[in-house]
């Protein structure tokens, strides 16, 4: 088990380097001059030259690459070209809001989706199962930003139950602000997790040990939760990892809908303002997050799957 | 519809794929409904200039934020543009991106996957490593990150979506190729001295086609939703050109004016994506019965 964890952790190092390399390749080698991208078509050649000099774009490519990797790993992303603020500071300010939204939506998604899936799986081909199917069809089809806009119109604008924008101050206020955005993402996650729970549980419920448990006289809830769901945990863990990742990517649009601070909103504004330094920092942080979530999921497998623990 | 396709199961000959597909579609009322939506959607997109009641770009300061009426069935937006006409023209974007990028990604991804699977070695190691890494990213996030570098606009969005979908195709194509490579007919083809490009084109590609076709259909819906998301974020189709995503974006900036653009565009995206999901599921069940649940 220790060996597995060490191998996974070590494996993350080349992954991070590869991520940084791909980001570097994308930002420097793809067609398009960053100076033109950042300053617009109407900048004078002198302004562009000054920009290149300032951003270190005149150095040889390998030197740019090294500088990029080192500064990324030390989280030194320079300063915003729009307001001169430290990019790391901007990210540090926005990141908690995104993490808060991601965690809240995953939790809500689990709380809604897993019991719904259990309910459907324990009533196969009956009304709860059909409801699950309908729910997952809608959940897979409705765009999160549209659902968010609808909830915003109904609950914030018309009913006034929730704030229209911002991230909130203090714990309760923040939870109040995060609820609707998180519910939006959770609805879509719940459709996915519910269907996954249903499939995994149905598969497990046909196994011999379930029959044995019932034959022993175990009560049905115990059979379902102790013997059934426990053995359906492995696919659910994979699903949870995917859910966290899609919640992270969904947060970008949701932050825009609810006008919340966050990493996605920072990145999208930076793109609109062509704030090269912030774009680069935002991409790197997002990418490192994805690697970290995947790594975390690999480690969670150890807890869930005893086969890995032993080997 | 996100069910993965196990390439190892793809290799039986499918003599009557079309018949099975017809049966799977006609057996289910939901799929017939989906088919009708898709046909309507394609017709509307193709016939947009003839059926749109107004010019989608024409602004009118006198008709700002009108609720639905006989003249403007879905009302007007904050610039007095007819929302229905914008929705009709917006369907063209969804249609083009929905089909073009999955097909391009299928071609690119299959090529990479076949190269990696057939030749193995260092090419396989490099391709597989990059694919694994890219697959760790949700498509939307990958698309956002690439669009952050490239910016919006038609060709950039095509490129972004293609890159976002390519790793999935490459993985399936690679795994299928590895399985096909073990088959006796490949050994026979090598033994009779057929040249490698010939073997790949005549014997490998046709035998891995089923999962690739299934994946392509499944991703039409994702491509439509991704284009809408990118346009919503302002890094897809650029205004004033209408796209269902940027209609919702404009609508959000005009929340106190009129909710109709948001409701109209959102309902259309949901319906069309739902329809393509149902058809994708049907195609998967027909071509690839063991992958479905």
From TrEMBL, chain A:
Membrane topology: Multi-pass membrane protein
Alphabetical UniProt keywords: Cell membrane, Membrane, Transmembrane, Transmembrane helix, Transport
Record-level GO cellular component terms: plasma membrane
ABC transmembrane type-1 domain location: 95-301
Gene3D superfamilies associated with the record: MetI-like
One example GO MF annotation: dipeptide transmembrane transporter activity
PROSITE patterns: ABC_TM1
InterPro entries per the UniProt record, alphabetical: BPD_transp_1_N (IPR045621), MetI-like (IPR000515), MetI-like_sf (IPR035906)
Name of the molecule in the record: ABC transporter permease
Transmembrane segments: 12-30, 101-122, 134-158, 178-197, 232-258, 278-304
Intracellular or extracellular location(s): Cell membrane
Top-level taxon of the source organism: Bacteria
Keyword flag Protein transport: no
Lineage of the species this protein comes from: Bacteria, Pseudomonadati, Pseudomonadota, Alphaproteobacteria, Rhodobacterales
Source organism (scientific name): Rubellimicrobium roseum
Signal among keywords: no
Family named by the database record: Belongs to the binding-protein-dependent transport system permease family.
Automatic annotation (TrEMBL), chain B:
Signal peptide bounds: none
Alphabetically ordered keywords of this record: Cell membrane, Membrane, Transmembrane, Transmembrane helix, Transport
Transmembrane parts of this sequence: 32-52, 95-118, 130-148, 154-173, 204-224, 260-279
Primary location recorded for the protein, binned into one broad class: membrane
Alphabetized InterPro entries for the sequence: BP-dependent_transpt_permease (IPR050366), MetI-like (IPR000515), MetI-like_sf (IPR035906), OppC_N (IPR025966)
One GO process term, biological-process aspect: transmembrane transport
GO-annotated cellular components: plasma membrane
Superkingdom as given in the UniProt entry: Bacteria
Recorded topology in the membrane: Multi-pass membrane protein
Localization terms from the record: Cell membrane
Positions of the ABC transmembrane type-1 domain: 91-280
Cited CDD domains: TM_PBP2 (cd06261)
Similarity-based family: Belongs to the binding-protein-dependent transport system permease family.
Protein name (record): ABC transporter permease
